[in-house]
Amino acid sequence: MRLIGHFIAGREVNGVSGRTADVFEPMSGAVQARVALATPAELRAAVADAAAAQREWGATNPQRRARVLMKFLDLVQRDYDSLAELLAREHGKTIPDAKGDIQRGLEVVEFACGIPHLMKGEYTDGAGPGIDIYSMRQPLGVVAGITPFNFPAMIPMWKFAPAIACGNAFLLKPSERCPGVPMALAKLMIEAGLPPGILNVVNGDKEVVDAILDDPDIRAIGFVGSSSIADYIYTRAARAGKRCQCFGGAKNHAIIMPDADLDQVVDALIGAGFGSAGERCMAISVAVPVGKATADCLMEKLIPRVRALRIGTSIDLGADFGPLVTAEAVARVKNYIAVGVAEGATLAVDGRGFTMPECPNGFYLGGSLFDNVTPDMRIYKEEIFGPVLTVVRAHDYAEALALPSEHEYGNGVAIFTRDGDAARDFAARVNVGMVGINVPIPVPVAYYTFGGWKRSGFGDLNQFGPDSIRFYTRTKTITSRWPSGVKEGAEFSIPTMK
Ligand code: NAD
Questions:
Q1: Which residue out of 177, 181, 208, 229 has the highest number of ligand 1 atoms within 8 Å of its CB and is therefore the one to mutate?
Q2: CA–CA gap between residue 348 and residue 102 (Å, rounded)
Q3: How close is the Cα of 43 to the center of ligand 1, in Å?
Q4: Phi then psi for 193, rounded to 5 degrees?
Q5: In this predicted structure, what is the pLDDT of residue 497?
């Protein structure tokens, strides 16, 4: 059995804990590898090594740091196909979707290549008599990222590319369910010329996460995963005096106004609701048609499309989506479907009976569709994270606007309409972090920022874009006076610009 260790000081090392986790191939259900689970002592040694390496890296000029990332972009292009297949076989998503996972990560690497410009400080000439003021951004030291299973390439790159470009050393704790691609990316960074110790991958579970939270030399932590863990990490890291940003779960609504182009809406809902088997934090999981006529017509068009979804293996290029990540994920989603039925929602399409005869042990589930879901139901309140679309019928626009605004999650939301007035009002008033207008998955491009509100995001800076440069640096402001020899006598009151 293949054993995946850790990537520390520029090379893969075996773990010493003796504890491992199974890494499945979701499409067959087989265990394909075991990943080592690190001890706090292994983490401590990796951090000490990273801290030593960071001193020189932080002093390396930003243009040279950018060149490593530029070379990395080329190397990922070279290995694109093999990385996408590795990702698909560990996660379950299809190969075209795995390529998208890598591509959205690379776009943030491209953004981080602009670091010489992004890290520039400010300068004021003559802020007072002979006084100039300037500011500079300096790296924090060693920073860490704890990432989820569902984007094994994109989210690690969202974290390590800006952090390393800013001159930090980075410690990545990826999901123990999909460790292969993060390990491969770390090796490519070394091949691209990154000094050993600047990007480390320490595999593990709660034990090593807790060690990261308590380690005195880790200055900042970026987390992405479920909201309960995000809350725990944010609270504990903040108590330890660390800078912290944690992104959590989601329940993304799509509001469908009566004037929307329903064929376009159905395409959008099918892709955004069921792509990657619904295992995306930006998946649409709630459709909100406004008015009975809109709802009836939408259901009439949606039902045959959900029934016709093509579920295949991860390497089936014709599949709409592949298996879920684990057998537990399948069981959890099936349980939610049973809960929805018991709560009184109308199960219009039931995906629980789907089977894949050629892969009988794979983690498959068909697409499901619920109608007449109400806000008090668990299937509305909780994140299902599977191929299940729920429909909540709203009487009017005000009710539709209130639903995502009052939901405890606030990651993404979309409105479908031909009315610019309604779209503009919605974008301004909805209480959610990322909004799409006729765009079902409004993940911003790399030079904006990504982050949800309410229990989808803890902390005040977003991922990637200009916020990431702020998150991974601290600002020093220098006030200088030349000529230095001016003698004004002692000044006992606070200096002012009066
Ligand atoms: P998860 O919370 O189970 O795991 C995330 C990370 O936390 C993993 O590295 C895991 O090892 C670690 N972890 C798990 N349990 C822990 C514990 N008790 N203590 C400390 N660490 C622990 O999430 P997941 O199942 O890997 O990912 C799916 C979740 O991530 C969904 O809720 C999804 O919405 C969310 N997500 C959010 C975003 C976003 O940007 N908001 C993006 C992607 C995924």
A1: 229
A2: 35
A3: 20
A4: 110, 10
A5: 73
Length of the chain: 498
Q: Average model confidence (pLDDT) for the chain?
A: 97
Q: Pick the catalytic residue: 113, 246, 281, 359?
A: 281
Residue 20: partners with Cβ closer than 8 Å, 6 or more residues away = 3, 34, 35, 36, 37
**Rounded to the nearest whole angstrom, what is the distance from the C-alpha of residue 429 to the centroid of ligand 1?**
29
Any atom of ligand 1 within 6 Å of the Cβ of 386: no
440 CB under 6 A from ligand 1?
A: no
Q: What are 191-244's pLDDT values in tens digits?
A: 999 999 999 999 999 999 999 999 999 999 999 999 999 999 999 999 999 999
The residue type at 461: L
Please state, in angstroms and rounded to a whole number, the distance separating the CA atoms of residues 299 and 159. 40
113 is catalytic: no
Q: What is the pLDDT of residue 111?
A: 98
pLDDT of residue 493: 86
| Residue 355: band (very low, low, confident or very high) from pLDDT cuts 50, 70, 90 | very high
